[in-house]
Amino acid sequence: MSDLNKLTLADARDRLRAGDVTSVELTEACLRAIDGADQLNAFVHKTPDLALERAKAADARISEGDAPAMCGIPVGIKDLFCTEGVASQAASGILKGFRPEYESTVSGQLRDAGAVMLGKLNMDEFAMGSSNETSVYGNAVNPWKVDGRDLTPGGSSGGSAAAVAADLCLAATGTDTGGSIRQPAAFTGTVGIKPTYGRCSRWGIVAFASSLDQAGPMTKTVRDAAIMLQAMCGHDPKDSTSADLPVPDFESMLTGDIRGKKIGIPREYQIDGMPTEIAALWAQGADMLRDAGAEIVDISLPHTKYALPAYYVIAPAEASSNLARYDGVRYGHRAKLAAGDGITQMYEKTRAEGFGAEVQRRVMIGTYVLSAGFYDAYYNRARKVRSLIKRDFDTVFADGIDAILTPATPSAAFGLGEMANADPVQMYLNDVFTVTVNLAGLPGIALPAGLDAQGLPLGLQLIGRPWEEGELLKTAHVLEGAAGFVSKPAKWW
Ligand SMILES: NC(=O)C[C@H](N)C(=O)O
């Protein structure tokens, strides 16, 4: 059977359970697709032998009637997740050759549920970036193209998004610190959900900014996101911020009924220079939800404009602390030393060689804002702003708002090279609609809702109340159905 790689996760699950198809067949179809897609540079470490071994084990489980939903499903894992015995580099030169002896909790949960890892996916170095261009492996390429121009798949989970959009895997893991799941999803016509902070364990995921980082699924449909998220959630005593809360059956919540829900439209997200197509799509999204029986309410989140500067103080501050561990002693790369070099030169040379320019920039910014003379002026201030942003959301939710609708990104996918060489702040502006959600610890989902005039996908974002991913997925599912986005990129790779 050909084209099995094009199935949705839900269809594949149903067909596996019905005995229509085997995990080995699904896995082989994905491995063929991956081998034919080197130009996309999405998979940076392929594990075909391991995948086939796991697929056979999954088939055995399914035939015994012991089949959790993810059993036998071929997936890609972002290079930020530590995977036992398999290269895990966070797309950084400093982790070259690192093969963890342990598995991250989330990828371990997927493995234990029978999911089949096909390999590791490209990303921005240490998840710092919005275009995948800071990767030590070179950037992944968006399967969507216009006028023969290569486009970014977004970042940092750009390899995950490209792989799902190009049907190289049925679904992938991503992580999101300031938009890294939702922006690439929007750029590639795929679905990505960042759950509430604390929903998915961070244990074994290379840390960027620990108070913001969350894992989540990247999938072809909202239903697939519900199924995969279920398998990624749960309490983990190894992560002190992991929530000890029951995980609802997300898929069963996709009832299609959102009558009476109150959807907020925040006026501060109407930013200067927003492309008219994005403004129009946003308005259409609101109309679709209204037509489905929701009430659309204008709301205000007054501190929104301070979110981006606060994020780009807090995230680098935490990164500078987290990345201090890469010193040439414990992990990966160590610089060659000259005669007479001491430990200080070893640190300096190793870190100068091992980290790329964006990572170095963030370590320097982070160190600066945490330094004794500037701590109050920058870091503490940013933390206060963060509290105000969270309070904005608390207020609208207390007023009865169930979810908030915004654009996912301020533009469609841009050309590779277009922003990488510009002022870094231009790149940071990509996160204008997404960082508030991380700062407030809320769940947010991006889903494809239309095409721009050039034929590129555009995404909308829904932001939910804390711990209400099920309700958020329900609303997203209705919006997905109404938007009827079915386009796929034309194959050129
Ligand atoms: N990690 C993320 O969520 C991506 C964000 N654009 C950043 O560079 O911080």
From TrEMBL:
Listed InterPro entries: Amidase, Amidase_CS, Amidase_dom, AS_sf, GatA
Keywords attached to this entry: ATP-binding, Ligase, Nucleotide-binding, Protein biosynthesis
Name of one Pfam family that matches: Amidase
Catalytic activity: L-glutamyl-tRNA(Gln) + L-glutamine + ATP + H2O = L-glutaminyl-tRNA(Gln) + L-glutamate + ADP + phosphate + H(+)
Amidase domain boundaries: 25-473
EC number: 6.3.5.7
Gene3D superfamilies (alphabetical): Amidase signature (AS) domain (3.90.1300.10)
Active site: 78, 156, 180
First-level EC class: ligase
Entry's transmembrane regions: none
Keyword ATP-binding attributed: yes
Quaternary data: Heterotrimer of A, B and C subunits.
Family according to the record: Belongs to the amidase family. GatA subfamily.
Record function comment: Allows the formation of correctly charged Gln-tRNA(Gln) through the transamidation of misacylated Glu-tRNA(Gln) in organisms which lack glutaminyl-tRNA synthetase. The reaction takes place in the presence of glutamine and ATP through an activated gamma-phospho-Glu-tRNA(Gln).
HAMAP family: GatA
Protein name: Glutamyl-tRNA(Gln) amidotransferase subunit A
Organism per entry: Roseinatronobacter alkalisoli
Gene from which this protein is expressed: gatA
